[in-house]
Design brief:
Blueprint: H1 2-10, H2 20-28, E1 32-35, E2 40-42, E3 50-56, E4 59-65, E5 68-75, E6 80-81, H3 84-88, E7 95-98, E8 102-108, H4 109-118, H5 120-149, H6 157-163
Antiparallel strand pairs: 1-8, 2-7, 3-6, 3-8, 4-5, 4-7
Length: 164
């Protein structure tokens, strides 16, 4: 099972360039979290100290607006979520709910700090990769918002603003 998890991480941009022994180091310190269908990994506003890598199942990122949950993005095997918590150390900016039963690798800030103490270069690479991933998502969101504001026939601006 450890080999399959290493392979999963190696396919992710956040762990690009990370040596196998470092992935083993991280996995040895990262619990597997199992969440049933319609159960939450976490809710918007919760304290945040970890990110997750979806190992099995499907989940959805939801944002609360005017008392209703709105879909931001769907997640599948190999997707990560919650990494902003490891970067800005703030509360959860959205909720993540399992659409179907899920298992996920939970990588904590404490685990990353242990990596910092052990191998600063590999720690820095993960941090840079996380920054790139968050930047990529921000760029996509900016593009979608711009297209909606400019009246793209494929995007309904009012719907986009309701769902983000």
């Amino acid at each position: 099972m450890q080999e399959a998890r290493i392979e999963l991480l190696q396919q992710m941009p956040i762990f690009g360039g990370i040596r196998t022994e470092i992935l083993v180091f991280l996995l040895d310190r990262s619990p597997i979290v199992c969440v049933g269908g319609n159960e939450f990994f976490f809710r918007e506003g919760d304290d945040a100290h970890s990110m997750f890598v979806l190992e099995t199942g499907r989940a959805a990122i939801l944002k609360l607006w005017q008392g209703e949950q709105h879909l931001l993005r769907s997640l599948e095997t190999g997707d990560c979520f919650g990494e902003m918590a490891l970067m800005d150390m703030k509360s959860r900016s959205a909720s993540v709910v399992a659409i179907a039963a899920c298992s996920a690798i939970e990588l904590s800030a404490d685990c990353l700090f242990e990596l910092y103490e052990r191998d600063l270069e590999q720690f820095a690479l993960i941090q840079m990769n996380m920054g790139r991933e968050v930047s990529r998502r921000l760029r996509e969101t900016d593009d979608r918002l711009f297209e909606a504001m400019m009246g793209s026939p494929d995007i309904d601006a009012a719907h986009l603003l309701r769902s983000t």
